[in-house]
Amino acid sequence: MPRRLPKVDVVIVGVGWGGGIIASELTKQGMTVVGLERGKERKTEDYFMVHDELRYALRYELMQDLSKETITFRSNTRIRALPMRSYGSFLLGTGLGGAGVHWNGQTFRFLPYDFEIRSKTIERYGEKKIPEGMTIQDWGITYDQLEPYYDRFEKLCGISGEENPLAGKRSSPYPTPPMKQTPAMKMFAEAAKKLKLHPYMMPSANLSQQYTNPDGVSRAACQYCGYCERFGCEYGAKADPVVTVIPVAKKTGKFEIRTHSHVRRILHTGNKATGVLYTDVTTGEEFEQPADIVVLTSYVFNNARLLLLSKLGRPYDPATGRGVIGKNYAYQVIRGGATGFFEDKEFNLYAGAGSLGMTLDDYNGDNFDHSDLKFLHGASISLSQTGQRPIANNPVPSGTPNWGKEYKAASLKYFNRALGVGAQGASMPFRHHFLDLDPTYRDVFGDPLMRITFDFEEQDRQLAAFTADKCGQILKEMGATHIDVRRELGPYDITPYQSTHNTGGVIMGASPDTSAVNNYLQMWDVENLFVVGASAFPHNSGYNPTDTVGALAYRAAEGIAKYAKGNGGLLV
Known about the structure:
There is one protein chain. The chain is of the alpha/beta class. The protein has a single domain (about 5-565), classed as FAD/NAD(P)-binding domain (3-Layer(bba) Sandwich), CATH 3.50.50. The protein is built from twelve helices and 22 strands. It has helices at about 15-30, 55-60, 100, 110-115, 115-125, 145-155, 185-195, 245-250, 300-310, 405-415, 460-480, 545-565; strands at about 5, 10-15, 35, 70-75, 80-85, 200, 210, 220, 255-260, 260-270, 270-280, 285-295, 325-330, 335-340, 355-360, 380-385, 420-425, 435-440, 450-455, 480-485, 505, 530. Strands 1, 2, 3, 9, 10, 11, 12 and 22 form an eight-stranded mixed β-sheet that branches. A six-stranded antiparallel β-sheet has the order 6-15-16-17-14-20. The chain is globular, with a radius of gyration of 23 Å. The protein starts with a strand and ends in a 7-residue tail after the last helix. About 55% of the residues are buried. Keywords: FAD, Flavoprotein, Oxidoreductase. It comes from Brevibacillus borstelensis AK1. One of its GO terms (molecular function) is oxidoreductase activity, acting on CH-OH group of donors. This is Dehydrogenase.
């Protein structure tokens, strides 16, 4: 029998950005919070002088062990899903701070169009513009309603940036100036302006200068070492939960973190959650943690999986389109882009930072006319200088032999003469893209794995080809002597890395008929259960998701506090 522990006000499942923000905000108000994290403890000191590309970038030190828990994947319902046994398309983080430790720090706000995508699309183009099977829906919240929470998250992190001329209105400027412009970024900006586009500096959680946030947490400026993505920051310059919200929560004396704690079920009676069941993975002992409020703040797949395993919410059925848990899984169209090779220019591409770059949104959202195009939404287009680490970086022009003398010569010539301009495309949901429990494969505890059913659609292929051409045009204007444009987008392949921006499965909306949670991320069916993270996104935008995750977490924290102080019921 599991050992029953003393009851607390709130238990949170997963201590990353979502869990850290929830814990920080609620403990400030005197609530007792327990955070259950299945991975290990982390601190900044763990990364002092550890620029080890092999260990972290290629052997995935900060990611979960796929031999113990993974996902299964299939491209359609007619075939059997198989487990992901080695890392490829996306990376599943684990440990205190979650993906907030090993992210790049690119901190974009979604566009106003995103939050009212169905309404705005129909208003401008008519309902026939939406392809059959595409299940876009409004989010149940507008950009203007979410903007104050974006502002809070950006001030928490000290985001370095400059105003995006094509984005929603801001209530205040970025808290710190933009990062340094490198020669390559200046070339990109000049070329884009000649093409009458609107470049701006990428909003960055890598600090441009020393900063003290509203909670009194001080952090140092970025050193441009180039070890951000897949690495923890040894300087604390990259905002992450371990150096921002978690210390604030712990300082209150109201927050207890239990690492190595794998939550397996949400306990419930009727339409109320009563706590969680978890296993201490170091001893195998099981515990019940009772709580007045349960908050899921783990990664997309685990949020949906825990609900399905706990038989909470209505599982999505792609055959009928009914149900909500597992609905609207979306990924990202990341393959469209171009690489330019320069004969007469050399760059220092091994220096950089995770969100050092220049971006434009002229082809993102509905910032351009889609009337004659066979896709909706679009992509942000960027030149990023994240730091080309030596093992993984070896660009050569197309037509170069794959080995031998010519290959070696081209590798030596172009290792600092190749620039990539990439498109980060939106992913629209379709009725036949979803998450459910795999009927065959199980984890080490005997629980079914999460199964993904997904493939790229004609929408994605059209978007990739369109944005790749735009990337090529910019590189041509920059003076590249050889340009390789990646226009083709084949079937989705889970093998090569693409993006860890998975979204959906526990989506938000204005009605329990079409969504799992309301705009406070409170479950319609279980009023004291909140589900925080990118699992709430009804589709994925042409940006990184973290800023929107952080903003929604702040709104959820506000909702949880209101719920705790009130007489229960659904928040409006």
